Amino acid sequence: MNDILAVAGLKRSFTQGGVTIDVLRGIDLAVARGEIVALLGPSGSGKSTLLQAVGLLEGGFEGSIRILDEEAAQLSGDERTRLRRDALGFVYQFHHLLPDFNATENVMLPQMVRDVADAVARTRAADLLTSLGLGHRLDHRPSQLSGGEQQRVAVARALANRPALVLADEPTGNLDERTADIVIDEFIRLVREEGSSALVATHNERLAARMDRVVRLSEGVLVEVAV
């Protein structure tokens, strides 16, 4: 099996004020093993809705979502939690680091959820942070880090459990252009080094062009973009 993710016929509608809004109108998408795909589209186009579906974070969707050849619709709640924990990593526009934990401890947390031994989790966290140029910031809390450093900690946290697929929702949307360039380059490098795949939602066409493939969300469907 070469595809980490295979989505077919995915639909999602919302009803507001008695009006039904079709956000996703039949999404077909595959992400191959080791591939980094940019999901391009303006704010409000449904990129986050698609990532929430693929991330198994909420229900209400029609269609098929297969992750590592497991059909999400056929899994129990506990099985979906297990698949999300073991196979997926998440990076958001805002880092969502725990303020009372230092950088190392924030990266250790997802490992501890999987019952990884403390010493092993600490070493893994330190290795990831050091590879991202934060070896001198291991004991710093989020408030002591710059915005770019905080987001690099979030990237390390997402990769901590060696996920098959990383889902990133506007991971540089809260950063200035220069810092965004640094973070996205480090993100791409680390995802490749770890052997993961990634689906990255962004509205930034310049950053999207750095990835292996670009798809655009337009009127609820995906269109391949030539780069």
UniProtKB/TrEMBL annotation:
UniProt KW keywords: ATP-binding, Cell inner membrane, Cell membrane, Hydrolase, Lipoprotein, Membrane, Nucleotide-binding, Transport
Keyword Cell cycle: no
A single BP term in Gene Ontology: lipoprotein localization to outer membrane
ABC transporter domain residues: 5-227
SUPFAM superfamilies xref list: P-loop containing nucleoside triphosphate hydrolases (SSF52540)
Gene3D superfamilies linked to this entry: P-loop containing nucleotide triphosphate hydrolases
Keyword Cell wall biogenesis/degradation attached: no
EC number: 3.6.3.-
GO cellular component: membrane protein complex; plasma membrane
Enzyme class: hydrolase
Pfam families per the UniProt record, alphabetical: ABC_tran
Domain of life of the organism encoding this protein: Bacteria
GO MF annotation terms: ATP binding; ATP hydrolysis activity; transmembrane transporter activity
Classification via InterPro entries: AAA+_ATPase (IPR003593), ABC_transporter-like_ATP-bd (IPR003439), ABC_transporter-like_CS (IPR017871), ABC_transpr_LolD-like (IPR015854), MacB-like_ATP-bd (IPR017911), P-loop_NTPase (IPR027417)
Family: Belongs to the ABC transporter superfamily. Macrolide exporter (TC 3.A.1.122) family.
Identification of the protein by name: Lipoprotein-releasing system ATP-binding protein
Organism, as annotated: Sphingobium subterraneum
Lineage: Bacteria, Pseudomonadati, Pseudomonadota, Alphaproteobacteria, Sphingomonadales
